[in-house]
Design goal:
The protein is mainly α. It contains 13 helices and 8 strands. The strands form 4 sheets. The protein has a two-stranded antiparallel sheet. Helix 2 packs across helix 4 and helix 11 runs antiparallel to helix 12. The model has no long low-confidence stretch (mean pLDDT 90).
Length: 414
């Protein structure tokens, strides 16, 4: 048997599908090239012309990068099933070289018998598989390589797919796409920043009070406030990362150290530009040194409270869940859950940092220990203690979330 693998090609800007014997699968590769280049898939629909006659058209539908990854992975899963299924038949009636002309009965066998009844895929997973197969075979039909295939879940299997869906608690990780959706729907620039400091700096809600406009003293040393960072940003147009010291008095006190500990925040230029825009156009006139201020009529210009970021998340969460219920978000993207909180943004940032450190150091996630450099660096940037009985639990939480992140990145999380 020769299984199918997908290789991302920077040179060709697509995923190249090949068998293990290095032979190229041309049509899946052409399909990948097309959807990567356009950022869209083509799905067949029936349209009525000016004379009242119905005719099929192929409508272009934009897709996110997450959906693009999911389509590639689900298509690869299907192609590998062909290899396995043909081997069980003991003859050449099912040949990979003729997969573009498979009858729709075989494609629906894959969806209904194999995915739903044999490996027990849930609704969300089935919808991803359907999109992958429909968009692939609609592309082949549109370009003249095959005829139209009606791929669908049989009515009797819809209930089974719902039953296969496992109930679970909200996972402690939000994908970058979902985070961006939250920022976009925050309602104001201030609220956007309150969310982004969690998702891009790893701040707890209360720690936003430690973002100060003017310089401040720590011990006998002067530290830059955001006004200084804005000046530095303007003087150094090529600089992409800026450091800010979050004082220990604004951080979480630790039972092992007896008090909060200062830590450096590494602010990307794009985020600092958003802070600058807030100060220039939205921040109320005030003598307060706190960067982010209240903007409601009753307390306009006063410092935000410790729960402001949590409140901003809760308000935005309601908007996103409403959009999800109306079908106005990416059907293949991660869904925001009512149990998600502002702290999930912080945990997502920590997970990304931990995951990236593992990749940079080329260390397997399971091999990270509480005494390793990766653990210590993650603890430091998140303001965690690396000592005490509870320290290893932090590592375990990020290890679990790293596997969830990896599943989302590969488009295979159900």
């Amino acid at each position: 048997m020769s299984f199918v693998i997908g290789i991302k090609s920077k040179q060709h800007s697509c995923t190249i599908f090949i068998r293990e014997d290095q032979s190229l699968l041309i049509l899946p590769t052409f399909f990948s090239k097309a959807i990567v280049k356009t950022g869209a898939v083509w799905l067949r629909k029936i349209s009525e012309d000016d004379n009242g006659f119905s005719r099929p058209i192929y409508e272009e539908n934009e897709i996110t990068n997450t959906t693009l990854i999911q389509i590639h992975n689900r298509l690869k899963t299907f192609l590998n099933w062909i290899v396995l299924y043909s081997s069980t038949l003991g003859n050449n009636s099912i040949d990979m070289n003729r997969h573009h002309n498979f009858p729709e009965e075989l494609l629906n066998l894959y969806i209904n018998k194999h995915l739903i009844n044999e490996i027990k895929c849930g609704e969300h997973s089935i919808n991803q598989h359907l999109l992958a197969l429909r968009s692939y075979y609609d592309y082949l039909a549109m370009t003249g390589f095959t005829n139209y295939k009606n791929i669908q879940v049989a009515p009797k299997n819809k209930k089974q797919a719902r039953a296969n869906t496992k109930p679970r608690q909200a996972i402690k990780y939000l994908t970058p796409d979902l985070r961006r959706l939250l920022y976009k729907n925050a309602g104001s620039l201030r609220n956007e920043l309150l969310l982004r400091t969690g998702g891009e700096l790893g701040l707890r809600s209360k720690e936003n009070k430690g973002l100060l406009l003017k310089y401040f003293m720590v011990g006998h040393k002067s530290q830059s406030g955001f006004l200084s960072l804005f000046t530095e940003m303007q003087l150094k147009p090529d600089k992409m990362e800026f450091k800010y010291l979050l004082q220990g008095k604004f951080t979480k006190a630790n039972k092992y150290s007896g008090g909060g500990k200062s830590r450096l925040l590494y602010i990307h230029r794009t985020l600092l530009e958003r802070f600058y825009r807030y100060v220039e156009y939205e921040r109320p006139e005030s003598k307060e040194n706190t960067l982010l201020l209240n903007d409601s009529p009753g307390n306009k210009g006063t410092s935000i409270c410790e729960s402001s970021a949590s409140r901003a998340f809760t308000t935005t969460k309601k908007r996103i869940i409403s959009l999800q219920n109306l079908g106005k978000t990416d059907p293949n993207g991660q869904k925001l859950d009512v149990e998600h909180s502002h702290h999930t943004l912080r945990h997502s940032y920590g997970t990304d940092f931990f995951y990236d450190m593992c990749n940079v150091k080329n260390i397997a996630i399971d091999d990270v220990t509480p005494t390793s450099q990766i653990f210590l660096a993650t603890a430091k940037i998140m303001g965690h203690s690396a000592k005490g009985k509870g320290a290893p639990e932090t590592t375990k939480a990020y290890i679990r979330s790293c596997y969830i992140k990896d599943s989302f990145d590969k488009g295979i999380y159900d």
